[in-house]
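Chain entry —
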Amino acid sequence: MDPDRPVHGKDEFGRIRGLVWPIHGYELRKLLPMLLIFFFVSFIYSILRNTKDTFVVTAPGGGADLIPFLKVYGVIPVSVCFMIIYSKLSNVLTKQRLFYASLAPFLLYFLAFAFLFPAREAVQPVAWFDQWHARLPAWVASLAGMARNWVFALFYVMAELWGSVALSLLFWGFANDVIKVEESKRFYALFGVGANLALIAVKFANHGLQVVGGRLAERCGMEPWTAYVTLLMALVAACILAIMAIYRWIDRRVLTDPRFYSETDQRAFRTQRPKLSLRQAYGFLLRSRYLRYIAVLVIAYGITTNLIEVTWKTHLGLLHPDPQGYQDYMARVSLATGAVTLFLMLFVANNVIRRFGWTVAALSTPVVFLVTGVGFFGFILFEDALAPWLAQFGTTPLAVAVLFGTVQYATSKATKYSMFDPTKEMAYIPLDQESKVKGKAAIDVVGARLGKAGGALVNQLMIGIYHSLRAAPGPIAVILFGTIGGWIWADLKLGRAFERRARPRRQDPV
């Protein structure tokens, strides 16, 4: 039996199993450890995403208006520096050592943060900021807020970099190397199962660490919030070590399995070094129309999410100004997002990709952003008119705005994990090895940051003109829907190009 063909049982159970879990038994040796890596990477990503926003939005002198400045003046420079260092290391290290070397800085940083966090007020320029904050213009005050909260600002930058490096560059780069196009149609949607189990696990981990942190705080005489964050960083470090251990097991046990790889493939995994320079990576983007389409998808996604999420988090910070309350709310959002995405992964995404093709699956994400964005911004624009009517139900426009934003956030993330990520990564597979490494590194590390920076620059412009993002929903909505239109155009173009490249070539008769 061809192992790359979907399983279609003779009975009804076999047919359903083929739709939900189209994997052969021996393939579990390859799939399950990859799922575990994706679980731990996504678990860390969800923890860091919730925590970085909690720090920045609820910090004295912070707020959601600080996020656009962090993305442009913090995340972009660090991403470029990482890209340069990565390009140098890739020329001298094997893929295996490059994987470990890329994770090691995160492990060391989050362990150091666990010790730095209790002394955060002592090492930050609190008195200077409090003295000058009221005298500064709004734009300059936001930059000063980065200095006032430099401990949280650095944490935000490292958390953002984790998503690009560990998830996009390392995991998906590894997956694209060891999985075939035919396997990806069955495997990639299922990888998201691990990611969304992680989203659900974040809620329970958050509750458990609060309980343990409260007991630790009583015994050690420290604040419960400080004890909670310290334990959280220890958990993140343990998960990074687990990722390294599982990767080593795959390298030793799976990549040497003759059922999956020939001797030639095995030698390539061991000895091949992905030659890469920053100039070459961008040269690939300029020369390849195919890679430019992928870059448009990534940049459009970054701009779109930044425009929507910062507006939503601005309202959420007003509704939950307490750090623990904000963190608890984000944990519940992660739980809901994970549940919705898990359903899409098991029953929708895998079958859409196999039955309707790449283009239909890829278009689902911008379409969901379009529909939910209309509802979210539509409500914000008319919230004053709806205030008297909402008062009859005992609620406020702020609370309902946050609810609409939460629905938008959860559904858009669900389609991103179940549809956008698998289809984007599938698009790299038909490329040659050099294009995969160089093009993917440029797109996923720097291109993704440029997308978010684009949205951040728009938000900065709105702050400069309207002095607050709450006062500028109309212009933000116009830019948002224009970006989604460009995203849909690139999806259609890339879909036709992908189908041509992925189509099996006819073999000439011998």
Summary: Residues 181-220 form the longest helix (40 residues). The chain is about 85% helix and 0% strand.
